[in-house]
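User: Hey, my collaborator sent me this sequence without any context and asked if I could get a structure. I don't really work with proteins. Can you help?
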Amino acid sequence: MSFIGPFANRLHDKIGVGVAYARISGRAKDLDRDFAAFLNSNWPIRDYEALLTTSYLAEIRQGWTLQPTLQYVFHPGGGAVRVPESSVPERAKNAIVLGLRTVLKW
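Assistant: No problem. I've predicted the 3D structure and written it out in structure-token form, which is a compact way to encode the shape of the chain:
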């Protein structure tokens, strides 16, 4: 969802917010269970990935925009497995993603 012209003096700017959700398939979960059984370990079972995002598109001048964005990702890769130095599999931790995009038109 985005809102155009959020402020009286910034008519071409946009504020955006978004939510996304992705479910991990039953077959992928079965594969994780097979890994856990084969390795005799506490292999995490992937379940879902969710995302909250917000951004602000600012028109610096006509033809030039700047857009910072902030995202928070729950269960990256569905709770994908990472194996740290201790060799004990664990879920990937939630992540914060910062971004910056610029567009020049001439």
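In plain terms: Residues 2-68+78-104 form one domain. You can pass these tokens on to your collaborator as they are.
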